[in-house]
Automatic annotation (TrEMBL), chains A, B:
PANTHER family: HTH-TYPE TRANSCRIPTIONAL REGULATOR BETI (PTHR30055:SF234), HTH-TYPE TRANSCRIPTIONAL REGULATOR RUTR (PTHR30055). Residues 34-53 bind DNA. Gene3D superfamilies: Tetracycline Repressor, domain 2. SUPFAM superfamilies: Homeodomain-like, Tetracyclin repressor-like, C-terminal domain. PROSITE patterns: HTH_TETR_2. GO terms for molecular function: DNA-binding transcription factor activity; transcription cis-regulatory region binding. Residues 11-71 form the HTH tetR-type domain. This is TetR/AcrR family transcriptional regulator.
Length: 196, 196
DNA sequence: GTCTATATAGAGATAGAC
DNA sequence: GTCTATCTCTATATAGAC
């Protein structure tokens, strides 16, 4: 198919830059990582990188948006309901244990991005609103089936489940012997009553 | 008593610097905050600040260590046992809702400091080890009294309670309508069985 | 104890050659 | 699409006057 090797290599370079940016932002955070360092990681100079992404903030947003389209949570979770959605979060935690870079990225940025002036602030506000909304819905569906522990508020349970996921990620980054998936699973089953 | 106004003012300046440093590190993180900005906040130039704290990293450590001696958790928690210790964590969460600066500081730094090269890395490793140890002990004491929900592992419950505290702090920083204390209280009561 | 001035280094971003 | 060279700004830290 008719030879567009230059633009193909262009797309490859973009992906290469995004991979390097994930690592750099994960290790040092957004503020401390430098465009020069990211460019060096893929054998480029920093003007070459800025040809593909006009600013450092644009690079960060591209990193975050690519991750959201590829990984969980966010992709395909709308189709899941009730216990299936909660089980999906346990799987996500298990999968994350094999991807330290992604966990570092989000744990580091979540803290930084609480500042309203941070370029990823709006992204994280939207991300949490979406995630919390979906998990709350799952708990409500569980409640309709009489499978939610009595007296538990679905919105509160959702907040705490998401908090457990985030908090265990930090603990896991400080001590890799922490079992994130087991913790999330325990948190899920703490509020589910098995009928019978 | 007996006129050491210069050294008294010296101590006052130190405290002034630490207060400004808390705010700056909280708002921007350690990497993004600058010594100049912190000095300006208390009407000093940056060499004046560096007279009191030799390096930026030393300033960060002083901030963290002062907070540990003043605030919770860490101070006086060894004397608390079982349910009292867990109740103390609920009170801490309630108190934190009135101190956004402290919450921002620890939420921002916890992410940054997962990197082993971060100046506060060892501090956070030690802090989590200590905190998790105390909470786990509280859950074990609860279990001995038959008040821990059967089948719940004290170490796992401790990890998840600390994770809820941390995770709710991030959510609260993004949306101040989140009730941190209520969430922590709900997490505590989720694993306590009231005998009778 | 605080200042001005400076050393040294690195940041993000742009101009223009190839 | 990538480079070299450079602009401008800011950073941490130090020297030395007061």
């Amino acid at each position: 198919m008719g030879g567009h090797e230059l633009s193909a290599r262009g797309a490859g370079t973009r992906a290469l830059i995004l991979d390097a940016a994930v690592d750099a932002f994960a290790e040092s955070g957004y503020a401390a990582a430098s465009v020069r360092e990211i460019a060096a990681r893929c054998g480029l100079t920093h003007p070459a990188l800025l040809y593909h992404f006009p600013t450092k903030a644009a690079l960060l947003m591209a990193v975050l948006e690519r991750r959201d389209s590829v990984g969980a949570p966010g992709g395909g979770m709308d189709a899941l309901h009730g216990e299936d959605l909660l089980a999906h979060l346990v799987e996500t935690a298990a999968r994350n244990a094999a991807a330290p870079g992604i966990v570092e990225l989000f744990a580091t940025l979540a803290g930084e991005a609480t500042a309203p002036s941070h370029p990823a602030h709006d992204f994280f506000v939207a991300r949490y609103a979406s995630l919390l909304g979906m998990v709350e819905r799952a708990y409500r569906e569980l409640a309709e089936d009489g499978r939610l522990t009595p007296g538990v508020d679905p919105a509160d349970a959702a907040r705490r489940l998401v908090a457990v996921m985030d908090g265990l990620q930090v603990q896991w980054l400080l001590d890799r012997s922490v079992d994130m998936a087991a913790g999330v699973a325990a948190q899920v089953s703490a509020h589910i009553v098995t009928p019978g």
